[in-house]
Design the sequence.
C-alpha cells in the first residue's frame, strides 16, 4: 500500500563504488523527482521526470544519472561515489496538476 | 529569485501550548504553498497545501495555515501541541521551472515539545 517506495533504505559503501537507488510510485502520477537532503536538512531538487522524459536537471555532477523505465519508476545511479555524496536521497511524485508532491521514506547513503 | 525563508531554526513549546511556525516566500507569480513534516529518520509528509481560494487552509493532525499575500507569508499554526508533533517542519513554494517544476523548500524549523 506504500505510495512512494525507495530501496534500499540504507546504503553504506566505499568511495569510488557505483550504486543505484530505486524508486517506485503506485499513485498513477506523471511526474517524479529526486531530492538530496544534506546534513543540515536542506532539501534540494536534483532531477525531475515527466512521463519518462527529463524536464529538470539541476547542477548535479554527471556522475549522477537518473533512469526512468516507465512513469511509475525513477531510479538514480551514482558512479564513482565521493565522500560528499553522503546524504539522504528522497524520491517524490506528483500529478500533473495540482502540484503537491508525495515523498518516499528516503535512502540514507553513507560513503566511507 | 524564488526563495522560502523560515526564520526560526529551532522552537521549543510546552505540550498543550499553541504553536506558530513562520514562513515567508519570494515568488514571481501566484504561488502554490505547502507545509511538510519530517519526523526523525522518516520521509516528508504533506501537512497541507494552498492553491487558491480560502486563504485559511486546514490540514492533517490539527494543523492550519494562513496565506497572506500582502505579507508574502504562509504561517503554520496549531492550537494545542502534542508531544508527537516534535519534528522538523518545512515550508515549500512552487512550481519552479515551469508548470511541471519542482518545489523550493525552506531550511526547516525544528520543533521540540516540553512535557
Sequence:
Amino acid at each position: 500500500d506504500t505510495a512512494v517506495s525507495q530501496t534500499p533504505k540504507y546504503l553504506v559503501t566505499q568511495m569510488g563504488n557505483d550504486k543505484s537507488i530505486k524508486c517506485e510510485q503506485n499513485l498513477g502520477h506523471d511526474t517524479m523527482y529526486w531530492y538530496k537532503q544534506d546534513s543540515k536538512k536542506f532539501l534540494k531538487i536534483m532531477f525531475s521526470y515527466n512521463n519518462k522524459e527529463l524536464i529538470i536537471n539541476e547542477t548535479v555532477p554527471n556522475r549522477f544519472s537518473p533512469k526512468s523505465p516507465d512513469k511509475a519508476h525513477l531510479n538514480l545511479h551514482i558512479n564513482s561515489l565521493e565522500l560528499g555524496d553522503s546524504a539522504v536521497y528522497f524520491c517524490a511524485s506528483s500529478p500533473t496538476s495540482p502540484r503537491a508532491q508525495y515523498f518516499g521514506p528516503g535512502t540514507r547513503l553513507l560513503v566511507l | 529569485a524564488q526563495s522560502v525563508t523560515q526564520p526560526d531554526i529551532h522552537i521549543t513549546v510546552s505540550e498543550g501550548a499553541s504553536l506558530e511556525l513562520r514562513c515567508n516566500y519570494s515568488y514571481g507569480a501566484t504561488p502554490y504553498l505547502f507545509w511538510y513534516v519530517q519526523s526523525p529518520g522518516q520521509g516528508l509528509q504533506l501537512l497541507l497545501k494552498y492553491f487558491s481560494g480560502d486563504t485559511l487552509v486546514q490540514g492533517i493532525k490539527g494543523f492550519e495555515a494562513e496565506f497572506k499575500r500582502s505579507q508574502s507569508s504562509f504561517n503554520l499554526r496549531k492550537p494545542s501541541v502534542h508531544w508527537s508533533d516534535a519534528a522538523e517542519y518545512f515550508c515549500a513554494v512552487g512550481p519552479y521551472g515551469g508548470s511541471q517544476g519542482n518545489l523550493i523548500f525552506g531550511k526547516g524549523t525544528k520543533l521540540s515539545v516540553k512535557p
Summary: Chain B touches chain A at residues 32, 34, 36, 38, 42-46, 49, 51, 88, 90, 94-95, 97-103, 105, 107-108 (CB under 8 Å).
